Amino acid sequence: MSDQPDATPVRRQRRKKQGRTYAPCVACKTDGLPFAWTCRACDFVMCQECMQENLWGMTCNNLTWTCPDCGTENNFGQR
Ligand SMILES: [Zn+2]
Ligand SMILES: [Zn+2]
Question: How far, in Å, CA of 39 to CA of 22, rounded?
Fold first, then answer.
């Protein structure tokens, strides 16, 4: 566990390796997702559908969502 301060206000996008799909959604276990929300701090993966269903519990402003696993706030709109 690393406790690194989030000092950079710049939104960095972490590119997934080309040609690889996302890990299975933690909620519905769907594999081979063309797109999924991923936590930037841990391996949490959630597909678009589950995110919509769980939105009420994941976000309070529709701008960021909080990872239920590690509590890290992630931005919507990242690709
Ligand atoms: Zn799902
Ligand atoms: Zn996380």
Answer: 12
Specify whether the CB–CB gap between 30 and 52 falls below 8 A: no
Domains held by the chain: number = 1
Residue 11, in any domain of the structure? no
Ligand 2 centroid distance, CA of 44 (Å): 5
Cα 18 to middle of ligand 2, angstroms: 22
Looking at the domain assignment, is residue 6 inside a domain? no
> For 5-37, what is each residue's pLDDT tens digit?
666 566 666 554 556 789 999 999 999 999 999
CA 36 to chain centre: 7
Rg (CA), the chain: 13
Residues spanned by the domain of 77 = 20-79
**Residue 58 covered by a domain:** yes
- pTM equals 0.70
